[in-house]
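residues and backbone:
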Amino acid sequence: MLIVITGQVPNPYMHPRRALAYQFLSDEASREEKELFFLKPDHSMNGQNRSKFWMLSGQENLAIDDHSLQALHPVFYDFMYLSDLRLARSSYRDLLQDIRSRNFPLFNPEMPGKEKIFRFLSESAPLSEQLPMTIFDVTPKKVLRLLKDMPELWLKPVHGSGGRNSVFVQYLGHDDFHIVTEQFCGQQMDSMVNRYQLESLLRLAVQERRYLAQAHVPLLKTENQCTADLRITLVRNRQGDWEVVASTGRTSRAHSLFTNYHAGGKAVSLTYPSTEAKVWLQSVGMTLDDVYRAQQFASHVAQRLQTNLPHLGVLGMDIGQTKSGSQYVYDCNGRPGRDILNDLELERYMRSVVGFACWLQENFYSEASQNNAQSSRILMAFKRDSQDCLRIEKL
């Protein structure tokens, strides 16, 4: 039984892209002969004795009590979008605590902050050479001191994605600095500032959230000065192994440093051979071998993270390449955007998600094979009550 935690249960008005993802999940669950249900955080148990679940049709909701849910051996997949989290932060945290207290397997909850991820990766000697130099626990004064030895650096929020609230700072000499932001406190900036102005901006930044600093890595660019990088999307599969489900080439707007899709960047699929992929690679000076190297690199990083985060199931890895051919990983996203995936990639993504859920169920529950018959009997015992709601009879 696969339970998808989501901020939006199936309904006729949901975004077509989310609807397609749900359909791919349902198709693969059917092939695996697994029941598929959807759960909103605010409809979970949270101290009660039953939760409400939805099926893909969206017309039936199920009330399942705790005892029966235990017998079904469920696996929970955290499918919450960032927008979902903003609307249901409290109930989401309560739900995760509830799932863990019942010792149910859950994969792909929120990842730790960037500082923990990069600290952990830097402990691996081979990987540490392919990470931008990273400084933790930054303060405005520490940043000003760093800029003397590291004249170009990035300030990144420990929690965040999509380039939001990140700041690029370039030291120009004397008391002059160049700063670039895409969505810093809702503003876009590309300005020359003095030391006092920079320090004021840094104080504002660290008052709102915690930051780390990373050395700027000069990435490949197109002829019209669009910055380029790769997004490698990985999902663990039916064997529990990491599988690259999509490779995407990303380019920023002209003269921009931000390749993020929602910051105005463009994305091209490199997963399967195509004329568009060939043109993109030529435009940024990369080859298919470079993409393959990035895929291998991303898989290695994912395996390393898995040793510390065993229920990590999905990753989006941002990998940049320099003119010399060196590759660096500068972000790991546990909720990679699916907007940049085409339909074939999205289907492969969801197929691996269901496969990993099956692997996790088989390996987590010691008596899974003995309970298949019992699970089927429980699911067949659903009956409609007077409110057109399904419930489970106690067996």
Q: What stands out?
A: DSSP finds twelve helices and 19 strands in the chain.
